[in-house]
Amino acid sequence: MKIRPILYSTEMVLGILEERKNMTRRVMKPQPWECPEEPGEYWWDIPNSEFEAIYCNDPDNSAFLKHNPFGNVGDVLWVRETFFKHDKNPGIFHYVADYENPEAFDVTGWKKVSGRYMPKEAARLFLKITDIRVQRLQNITEEDSIREGVYYYGDETGDYYDYMYDNCDLDDIGMATARESFKTLWQSINNKLRRNPSCRKFYETVGEDSWELNPWVWVISFDRCEKPEGF
User: Fold this and answer.
1) CATH fold of 3-81+125-225, please?
2) Closest CA to 54 of 35, 36, 73
3) Which of 102, 118, 138, 209 could form an S-S bond across to 80 if both were Cys, CB 3.0 to 4.6 Å?
């Protein structure tokens, strides 16, 4: 069993804590490329591999999946999340997701730290991989959108709402489906990549919208588990 880190925003951590989220999608890097001689056939350049490329259209291709950066079924991901640490008490941690108003956590000596810098000893969430596959982003189903953490608002309109932020483009208008809500969730996170020089080439032909780009993604299903022995 391998144990690897995975970064989550505070809103996604809340989805895990509230048992709404047990699936995640991450953009494949590099992106697969279409074979010029065989339209519709995609190949992926395996990072740090002696192989030049491998066929990736088949989501059950075990020879391909074993090269993913997250792990295989049975492996564990430890969650990096935004947290508070204390200058004089380095072994004590608080987590932003636990506070309704984290900005009020302004006590002398405590500092908010990005999850990118979370040390292993601060980890509290562990996720065991139950399935991993590849997919084009827009092929996400209604069921999988709900597993991504989108929840039913439960009002009389029967609409779904995005749970992690005030709908940035629609002024809190409810989504008719979970998939539409997931779309706005994805855009709110991934449209920011246009400012990342390493991702800029992805937007050359589709503008700045990360949903219309329809990238290939890793689809990871997981269950929460106990802290692995020896971690």
Assistant:
1) Sulfate adenylyltransferase (3.10.400)
2) 35
3) 118
